[in-house]
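Troubleshooting: if your tokenizer reports a length mismatch, compare your output against this known-good record of 353 residues.
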Amino acid sequence: MSGNKCVKPPRKAYTKEPHEMTHSEKLRLIDDELNSFYKYCQQAGFTEEEMDIICQPLVAAMRRSWLQLVFRATLILILLGTIACLAAQLDFVGTHFSAIGRLLLIKVLPIWNWQPLYYENYPCDTLLPLQTCEALETIDRLSDVRYRQLVDNYLSRDAPAIITDAMDSWAVMNTDYFWFDNITHLYLENERLMETVPCALTSNLRTGSSDLAAFLRRVHSPEVAKWFVHWQNCDINAVKVLRKYYQRPYFLSSTVSPAHFNWVLMSSDYNSPSYKKVELDSGLIALAQLRGATQLRLTPINPCNSSCPELIADLQQGEMLVFTNLMWTLEYAPMRGLDNIAILTETVWEEDM
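Known-good structure output:
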């Protein structure tokens, strides 16, 4: 009986591959196989037409695979685009998109100067159909101004104004303990700001890099004299921390969004006949003179500069320049023999606010 029992043969031991093939090795193996097959067909005497017929299933499979890949990529792009468009409808998301877009445009400026292409879409005739900038002679100085008055008489007409009492209630304007040290300590004693890189930095001192902390240590030294600097904060942490030294102006409505970028402009006993240009985004601009005084110049962009005059004014301590810069470029010159500190803010602006 025992001889009739079924005895299972021993299971063949599974031998593992010495190592898994990498993706490049697999592609190389497939390429070698296809080359070998092609050479075999040539040696067998197949014509090009016959080889096309033989390879047709492989070509069709590759075409289907490629079309599927293109379809999936297109679907993903459409989905991402739809999500981005929906998200852009939210104010804070749209602001960040605008900020990122501006940073990209600034980065490509050395390669491609897109500014003439941008400005040519805004001729003066379409910018100010009712009252053009050629009617402006000076920058008006106002006090106790109301928001609606400012919008109707100035902002909606792209006319700048200086508000003389804009900062009367600000804590920084009512203390003697505010100077360069406050700005330098603000950055040098904050770990997050120590690593921040400004989006733009201009100075007569050779910085060697965009390391703002190293630059501030340099100007903090009493041995360094006769200098100017202005830089733009677009890092959200730097923007928020600098708000310690300014507030929403009393004449702005609560419907106006907070500033998405801010700038610091400082100088010490710097005398120069040339103006310093500040590269601004389009929007609502507010330049607050915290210490010292600054001479500023607003120049109409091309082609408006052919019919509209330059506007020059002195911005004294405690005063604020307000304008929409759709058609103006801003330049400034530190007042001779003075130490100056100013903060500039950029805010998204819509005329129906």
